[in-house]
Amino acid sequence: MDECQKNRRADRHSRRIHLQIIEDCMPFCHLKAEDDFKMSPDMLLRTTALHKLATSITALALGAAVFPSIAQADDWLGTASADWFNAANWSGAVPDAATNVFLDTASPNATLINGAAALSALAVTGNTGTGSLTISNGGTLASGDGHIGAAAGGTGTVAVTGVGSQWSSSGALYVGNAGTGTLTVSDSAQVLVGTGAAIGVDTGSSGTVAVTGAGSILSSVDEVFVGVKGAGAMTISDGGAVESTDGTIGGDTNGTGAVTVTGAGSSWNGSAITVGMLGTGTLAIAEGGALYSTSGVIGSAASGTGTATVTGTGSLWDNTGNLTVGQDGTGSLTVSDAGQIDVASEARIGFGAGSNGAVTVTGAGSQLNTDTLLVGYLGTGALTIADSGAVSANTTTIGGTATVSGATLSSTLVNVGGTGGGVLAVAAGGIVNATTTSADSGTISVSGAGATLSSTNIALGADSDGALTLSDGGAVVTDNLTLGGVGAGTVNIGAAAGDAAGASGTLTATALTFSDGTLVFNHTDTGYLFATDMSGATGAISQIGGATSLTGNSAGFTGLTTVSGGSLSVNGTLGGPVTVSGGSLGGTGSILDTVTIASGGTFAPGNSIGTTTVTSVTFDAGSFYAAEVESGGTSDLINASGIVTINGGTVQVIASPDYLLGAPYTIITATGGVVGTFDAATSQIFLTPTLTYDFNNVFVELAIASFDSAAVTVNQKAAAVATDALGAGNVLYDAIAVLATAAQAQAAFDAVSGEIHASAKTALVEDSRFVHDAANNRIRAAFGSVGADRDANATTGLWVESFGAIGRTDSDGNAAALSRSVGGIFVGVDGEVADDVTIGVLAGYSHSAFDADARSSSGEADTFHLAAYGGTQWGKLALRAGGAYSWHALAFDRSVAISGFSDSLSSSYDAATGQLFAEVGYGMTMGTARFEPFVKLAHVRHATEGFTESGGAAALTGASDVFSTTFTTLGLRGETEVAFGETTKARATGMIGWRHGFGSSTPSQRLAFAGGTAFTVYGAPVARDALLLEAGLDFDVRANTTLGVAYSGQLGTGMYDHALRANLGVTF
Description:
7 helices; 30-stranded parallel β-sheet; Lipocalin; 25-stranded parallel β-sheet; 1068 residues; mainly beta
């Protein structure tokens, strides 16, 4: 190739590079210096750097165009070997410092600089083809600009590896200019860039840089761009290092950049770091990696989106200037798992108008340390500190949202509001430590177990409105709390006014000073203690919900206190007027100004019985005075140094069980006199209060009405008369005497009535049917009658039957509903003693349980049964009869719970049930079915012994008693043969009937309290009429053995009984 040809080739390559560089410059050139005055200081810094690099690149490109003949072009052929220094591998001679080198092929051999020094003017690896360069074993390359993956479609790979290996570029370095480029620096090798480095430059390009291993360095005199308009990635690992003046990740609108610094000793040292300038940038510092910068921006321009993470022990971002998350774009920063960020100046979150910034510090050991913290300055900012993370600052301004949960924020000064609308949320386990905390156009919430705000001074509303809410166990600790100033300050205990009451938090303050503020109690606690001393003339206290006790010295507070709900107890000293329009006012302290009880409000002095000292009181129409009275003439008292004005209202007298009848109680004393009268006086249901007045006092006297005046049912009236007869001094009498309402009194009379003793008789009488049903069934079996289960030709039978049932009798308006259950077994033997005459005997055991839940009463019975039965038959007419006797061992438990009184009672005693029964039936046959209409008569007599309950004052003694009733039943039985397959046959049986009771259907019991008069109560009634239903199957399991199962039920008005039985009979 002659010199002219070489010059023409050099000119062609120079112009190609020149055009490519000018295109690469375009992403930066739209940011002009004359636009700087429109930008924020940080944005100006970034723009200046871009403009500087763009100018540098343009100058290089113009230089190449002006002097095309100075540089020669040399293409790598690789035909002889991989050796750079073998001339046979080149289209020209071995390159020198004046040669532009193009490595556009790796076949047959890739390019290798091994242990020697190489030179070139322009070094291009992968211009339009695929090129590869390895610099190893101390080899070096000194070049001008370096391009890896220069043109679209070009692919370049450069590896610089080993101690002493170096690529030194006096110009710029492009990795993925318009094509695809990869640069690896490893094992203590170095790449030195004279101006700036760009990775992923043009649209569609892809650039990747990896700097790995201790001593490996990529050093750029100017800026490093990762993802200009293309996709760029840079990884610094295992002790590798990158040094640059500045760094940008995600440069232009379409650019995407990602940088990872990972592993102990890995570092990036740069001045100004931008993540997401106009494009999308990602920065990850992990596993001990470090980034050192003079400033940092995440999400710079409006179109920029940046994401950064610092995670793992030893991972560090050390910033000696400002760090901005959301400059004008969208930024996100996460510090986790003991990662750390140090910012010497300002840490800004959501800094510019329209920006969005979010920072999360989470995990034990994770830290963000800064001098000044701005959360939501002109944009939207969010700070989350969680799970033992920690943030520390000298000054913190929150115009966005800061949440501290299970973590710590420490700052000398905390201002919530900033440019307006700031929120500080201290959640469960969160701790905020400060010297001075203020909220102006901002709100602070401290909520949840362990949530704590500790600040020497707290000011709310000093410049504009601010609020603090303490709820759900949160705590605030301060020396001085000031409410209001230019704005209004509010402290909410539990919840804000207008919201539903919530669980309270705790405020511990040495002093609370009102300027123009409000203290709101809107909680659900039943005993909230507020001990802080309060002062100020223009504030307000608002009691809305919960029970609050003020114990501090608040004589210096002269603002208005209002009570609209819950209760406010003044147990210290309170200055200023008080108005009660709902809820109640009380306590044993002093109120140093006027008290107005408006319509709907209540004055209830003391904390139980006690005295409230006031200056003056006015009771408006519709107001209430709740006055407690007890023995010895002691009562609640309003002690006024001025005038008590009564414009109506009601006195509610609440008497304790040991009150005095007919003795005057003093409930108001006024040094300045009493003016006016109350409209009415009320008390508990049996007490009648009477008010009297003199010039300085109001008195009340009590009279009592008879107990039966509140009773409604028969049992209630009986119990009322009996308890009334016990008289004052009896604890049961005293408890009932002070019940508040008729409903409470009626419930008390029901509770003490002992009606379960009467109702149990119904259960045992109803259960008596199981004995005579079993006996009648056996007699029918002896003659093969309808519905029986035995061979009619047999003369003797042994049988066993088990049964179980549940039932219920509804309340009749007097006695409570009774639920019952029973289970048992019968064993019997019967046989023929003469032609058509059969007799038998049975014995059995059953256990019954019965409950009257509405009376908190229950009982059970263990019963032993013995019966004799017999029958005969004349043709189709059958007669069956028998008698039975049952012995019951009864046990009962009752609970009596009345306001101020409770008792647990128990008793056990014996009872017996005797019965006689007879039945006549007439058998008929219709085809394969048989029927028997029948009539049955049973007389049942139940007798109980006397008893005495054990327990307290509500224990009863019961007299022996007899309850008898007679039942008749008209019914029809039927049966037919059924087959189950070819071999199993059975008889299906059924019955329907109507049972009617004669005589008494309601059992009673005569009872008396110890030392009292006897009274009679009535139990749940036996059903007067009932529908009887029965259905069953009998199987002949052997020639002389029958197995039967059946259901039987009774259904009546307000009652039901459902039973199942199974029997086994053997005949011979």
